[in-house]
Amino acid sequence: MKEWTINESLQISTTIPMDHVTRFQIQWGINAHASLHLEGELSYEESIVCQNGYFTGSSVIIRHRSAQQEHILFNGIIKKIVFLMDGGVSRIHIEAISASWKLDQRRVNCSFQDKEMTYAALAQHIADRAGAEVITLCGKETMLSGALIQYMETDWEFLKRVASHLNKFLVCDIVTGRPAFWFGMRKGNQVTIATNYTEQVRFDSLLNRTSYIIHSREAYNLGDRTTWMGKPVVVSQRIVEFHNQEILFTYCLEEEVNLKQEIQYNEQIVGRGFMGTVKQISNEVLKIQLDIDGDNSSAKFWYPWRPETGNIMYAMPEIGSPILLTIPSHDEREAEVRVCLHRDGAASNLEKEFRDRCLNIADDAVLRLYPDKLELSKNKDEHLLTLEDGKGIRLETSKDFKVETKQNIFCRGDVVIVNASEEINGIVG
Fold it and tell me: Has this prediction a pTM greater than 0.85?
């Protein structure tokens, strides 16, 4: 990596052979990846070399030195490079992002059903799975409030939603260059912020939150604490701007007691159904191994059984039966089992809307409900009773069909037909 001084207080390290940096902006805030937008100049020959895309994915580091100490203002990954020719001068525009971005690349489907798991343990599990590092600052003693489902979400999106259950945030790391983050507000230092610049006060009436926008020449970090206007506040956002060889820091200070977020939901999950297999039954609740979890042992949560027939007539699914777990709202903690199904090759289709329902009553006993008919089957349709719109009632069996009563038997209809291929007997007494 090439390393050179931008000015007396700034230093940059990168593989891109720039002649000098003209301006940059760094944004670092809660629940977001840190970003860098940097502009500079380089020779025409070097711009030709850089345009092959070789430098995309490489790192860029910006350091700030003050009388007190040295800060790494940004350490991240180059996402995009744009070249421009301006009056014979080759200009470069670099977009970079913090390494936490690596947690935001792949969408995942899986469930977390262990109510004995803490929120901190869940965050650690996901970080380990993603090859990331996490410092858990909340949820170490709080158990999951219900079974959670990560559906079409990246790990970063899901973790933000999980943190919101505790009214907390994620904070990405911008120093190490590794995919790392804090689960909960970063614990910074107690500082005294020196400023001679304009201050701005913002009040969010919806969240009952007051924030202060200030400017300074000094570098502070997210999570640093101070007192402002007589109130304890925390740095919740930092913007660093370099222009005309000057550097300026803009901070958002918020009252720590009010720094919280409302619970977030995954709107994509509303009305979805997830195929699974019944593993355990107790009264009117079931433990389910969901297909999205593969071979992982996920069947730890007792889901309620809500038969579509209500409490008038129903039978609990048997162990091993395929079922459909439905999510009636945007909160997956309200999930319930409503349908017991036959697998028909469409089990992997999470969005399938099943109009044809099947209830396994017992071994080889099945109740099938279709839009236009009802079937009761035994021994793989060896005995079959069908009630069908437009056709009436049909009873089929491969065995003897016997009707016995101690009273009279009446057959009534416009036409009564009795048909036998071999013999019809009438016996009295």
Answer: no
